[in-house]
Amino acid sequence: MNFSKTITIWYSTNKRKLPWRETKNPYYIWLSEIILQQTQVKQGLPYYEAFVAQYPSVFDLASAEESEVLKLWQGLGYYSRARNLHATSKYVANELDGVFPDTYKGLLKLKGVGDYTASAIASISFGEAAAVVDGNVYRVLSRYFGIDTPINTSQGAKEFKALAQELIDKKNPAEFNQAIMEFGATQCKPKNPDCDSCPFQNSCVAFSSNRIDKLPVKNKSAKAKKQYFNFLVFVSDDGKTILQKRVGKGIWRNLYQFPLVETIKNYDATAFKPLIESHDLVKGSDFTFTLYNKDCVVHKLSHRHLYTKFWIVNVEKLSEPGIPVSEVRDYAVPVLIDNFIESFNF
């Protein structure tokens, strides 16, 4: 069976209609690929449409403030993508006169662009035979060929990249790359793949050997570290609160949050009271505090699980300049904070 031909024929009749498939403009392809990193299409589509509407060209994105970009990105997570997106737009607009590199190697030099994204842009926008390898491609190839090399190892990355490069349709790389990604996303899904209507059923090693749920293989990652976050949500008598901008190199850099107290374990109100009393923002003030959420909100990041509580601290007057609670939604915040703001309904 001709793998490339079969999958592109499948794609021609089964592909979803998506806006970035109606253009070869590298700006729009790059924008869609950055948004869709570690994000499903149904979640990423409204963000793509919002970015295109607000920043129709790379020059528009480059001229925006980072805080505006982060606010529009809010809810997608992995905020380094947004910061890299903004930085790269400035580089392309200011250093390259708005013209994206037209080769895989040239695209790799852009901040936030790795092998997969460079391959996608190079093939779709410029017709270069650079094979994409993402989670969907790993799954399709490992199942069809019965490959049990762990995909999260350097050996696995090289093996699957070489195989994808061997299979790619050199005459129509854009169609092949989009076909194999679409096939993994909608047909050869992680759970409950549609094997009954699969054009590869008779030649798929995983199907014939009953190993569909065993492939692809992935080495177990280290156990996620637990962290205990306590956010102090100040509310003054004149309707103000405190948001602080995160600095440093963390994933939430340049986003805003309520004052944070990190503890080594989960504290109840009695145990937590001395920590609030000794906090610089509270010292010498008359205050009352209540716990907003009895059970911790668990926010899972790739290597950390954040066990979070929100403490409402009522004071007559803030000890530092605050912001009106009516303006809280104007600030770019992590999704964890955003969910609280929506729930608390300032």
UniProtKB/TrEMBL annotation:
Superkingdom, taxonomy of origin: Bacteria
SUPFAM superfamilies (UniProt xref): DNA-glycosylase (SSF48150), Nudix (SSF55811)
Record keywords: 4Fe-4S, DNA damage, DNA repair, Glycosidase, Hydrolase, Iron, Iron-sulfur, Metal-binding
Catalytic EC class: hydrolase
A Pfam family recorded for this sequence: NUDIX_4
Presence of keyword Iron: yes
EC number(s) stated in the UniProt entry for this protein: 3.2.2.31
Swiss-Prot/TrEMBL catalytic activity: Hydrolyzes free adenine bases from 7,8-dihydro-8-oxoguanine:adenine mismatched double-stranded DNA, leaving an apurinic site
Listed Gene3D superfamilies: Helix-hairpin-Helix base-excision DNA repair enzymes (C-terminal), Hypothetical protein, domain 2, Nucleoside Triphosphate Pyrophosphohydrolase
Cofactor details (free text): Binds 1 [4Fe-4S] cluster.
Function: Adenine glycosylase active on G-A mispairs. MutY also corrects error-prone DNA synthesis past GO lesions which are due to the oxidatively damaged form of guanine: 7,8-dihydro-8-oxoguanine (8-oxo-dGTP).
Protein name according to UniProt: Adenine DNA glycosylase
Source organism of the structure: Tamlana crocina
